[in-house]
Amino acid sequence: MFITFEGVEGSGKSTQIKLLENHLITKGYNTLVTRQPGGSILGKNIRELILDPEQQDKPSDLAEMFLYLADRSHHIETIIEPALRSNVLVLCDRYIDSHLAYQGYARGFDLEKLQLLNSIATKNIIPNLTIVLDLNPEEGLRRVRYEREQEVFDRIEAEKIEFHQKVRNGFLKLAEKSPNRIKIIDASNSLEQVHHHIINSFEQLLVKK
Ligand SMILES: Nc1ncnc2c1ncn2[C@@H]1O[C@H](COP(=O)(O)OP(=O)(O)O)[C@@H](O)[C@H]1O
Ligand SMILES: [Mg+2]
Hints:
The protein is of the alpha/beta class. The protein is built from 8 helices and 5 strands; from the N terminus they run βαβααβααβααβα.
């Protein structure tokens, strides 16, 4: 099984993946938690290239779009696909829907072309379940700011609020298009409430299987 977590910065993806992982381990599942970009060694380097706000030669929007795809294709081939083949339950922090929300809805690249590029990059590996943690991006960025001692944002977090709003709306539109795969969860609730809703979505998935 392959489960992905999506949502704006600070919506609680890392927190909720950890909580779900702990829950699944107590239920006896063999799990792998990973992320995009940065789930492989090559991917960590690509993540730096994309997110480092200090670098001199920042990637253009188009180069950024391809950097995410390079990370995703390598990560699928070397980490996710082998894990799924060994019956490991994979939990991934961001996947194709983030590409569509950020590069498509927010940066303006054509959605159908992005879909095609992603299907090539991922060999058409589609998650069984995608959790979108829906949150007002201002609240998400407030959480991120609160968590950090210094106010340092990476290159994407530092985008203007309108950009993050487009990302949020993009996720909501994607969920409308794939209601069976994508579940929207209100991430303004408490950690425990959000966790509870995620477990419900997971259990519904087991019933469907
Ligand atoms: N439901 C919640 N209510 C309040 N704070 C939260 C909630 N979920 C996460 N946080 C806090 O918000 C910050 C960002 O959460 P994180 O899981 O890192 O988000 P993401 O991985 O989506 O960027 C962390 O400090 C986390 O403890
Ligand atoms: Mg995170």
